[in-house]
Structure formats: structure tokens, C-alpha cells
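Q: How would the C-alpha cells look for this protein?
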Amino acid sequence: MATLLESADREPATYTKEFSVNRSARGCLVSINYTAEGGATATLDAKVQYRDGAEDAWDDLPGASIAQMTGVGETDLMIYPGITSIANRQVSIGLPRALRLHTVVGTDNLTYSVGMVELP
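A: Here is the predicted structure in C-alpha cell form.
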């Protein structure tokens, strides 16, 4: 598993990490490991974005998001063409090569890490 974000205590803010996938990969599994929270109102939002070369901007990959994670635990998001889409868990879409992880820590600090596995 490739590490996109190392485990760290993060303050309320936006954190991003660009990554790419091998041309032979048809999909990927993004795993978020939320290990500690600094307060009762800590939340984490995460989404995967793709690079829109025409606009030279990052756009959200449709359906590839997890909203308002609270409490310690691991959450996986699979992006793969042809699978059954399940909100906040699985997205049926082709995988662009240039991607970015976009996470937002809410009102209190929290500790988390993010990994990614390419799927053939």
C-alpha cells in the first residue's frame, strides 16, 4: 500500500496530496485510518479529485467522497469501473491517471493517515 498521508495530528484545515496511478491499474482502493480525535466535534471529509487539463484545475471525481467521518476507525473507498456504486464506499467510474486526495479536518484536531492500493 502506498502512503498518501502519513499518520499525524492535524489541525482544522484543508490537506491535499497529488498522486498518480500506473497505466495498467483500472482502479484503486483509498484507505483512511482515523486513529485519534482531539475533541468531541472532530470531523473529517475526504474526496478524490482529478486533473482537468483543459481548465488546468482539480475537479471532484463524481461520487468519490466520504463526508463527515467521526470517531476512530478505518474507512475504505473503492474506485473501479463496473462495480456497484455504494455511497461513501464504492464508485463505478474509470480511473484518471492524475489524481489528488483532498481532506478537510473540521473544528477539532484529529489524527489520521491515508493509503492507496492500485487495482488491476
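The CA atoms of residues 14 and 104 lie 4 Å apart.

The chain has one domain: 2-119.

Upvote if useful.
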